[in-house]
Amino acid sequence: MAVRDPHLHVIVLAGGIGARFWPASTPSVPKQLLPLGGDRPLIRETVDRALRLVPPDRLAILTGSHLRGPIARTLPPETGKSFLVEPRPRGTGPALAWAAWTLARQDPEAILLSLHSDHVVSPEEEFLDSLRAACHIARTEDSLVTLAVPPTRPETGYGYIRPGAVLEPGSPWDRFRAFRVRSFVEKPDVERARRYLRDGFLWNSGIFAWTARRFLEEVRIHAPEVATHLPLLEAGDTDGFFRTVPPISVDEAVLERSGRVASVEATFQWDDVGTWEALRRTRTADGDGNVALGASYPVAAQNNTVFAPDETVVLFGVEGLLVVRSGGITLVASRERAGELKELLKALPEALRNPDGGHPHRNPEE
User: Which CATH topology does 8-271 take?
Assistant: First the structure.
């Protein structure tokens, strides 16, 4: 069993709404609470993995107040009080600055490992070792570290990393490829994505490791949008910080501007479960290419995706459909347009976008 780092703290980002998984994912029951990767909610799988790295008192779920209760009910009892609750959503830049400031007060040597609540990874041991290697490099290189994933397809929904100079992690992590990040590239079109694959670019997983001290210093140097408001945290005015700081992602605010960014190449399989098409990578298809969660009976039907855990769906003579039944709403769409559900939501009335009547939609980019 690996020795636990006494200064490691894990933050699980769990504030998004997963709009691309409508109607199953809603503001009150977002995708991280759905069993999209296996038999358990995505966030429960994430937390169980994290608890192999840290004890419950060094794990925190960063989310909004409206999700604290629903998330707590999915987690082990010992993690029920492990929350950092944002007063209002402002993106990952301000949220992680707040988390780093909070941890630095508790532990000046704190290392912050930031995980998303909705990723699917395997095998688990390789995932955990990749995280340990990233934390090691964050400390020894005094750098901001991101996990980079070797691409398996010309994906247009991910950001990419252009590798730079090779780093030598040292034993016992020398089996991992590590390097300086030469540049980040935002979501490309298909042709550029194909070129990135040929040129050795990697996916940016959004999994980060850094010391709280170094991250706050990089915020002060490179992210004036956030740094200007840090004195409010020093004064104990967390609500004022979140009320006045502008929304911005950590990638835009810090990582794309800093010269202290490194990366570890992942040795595990990774999926961010970004659209309904991800079910076809996390579930097994039948002999006709149909993938279903729930009772599904395809007859003369091929290559369809069905999510209806509490319903029975019969498919007859159709191909390439996405069928989702949840909360009294049925969505039928072509699979090729599954990634465009945010555009669909803009055309629907609020009563349909948010059928459970819960918290209104957060940042439309989430």
Answer: Spore Coat Polysaccharide Biosynthesis Protein SpsA; Chain A (3.90.550)
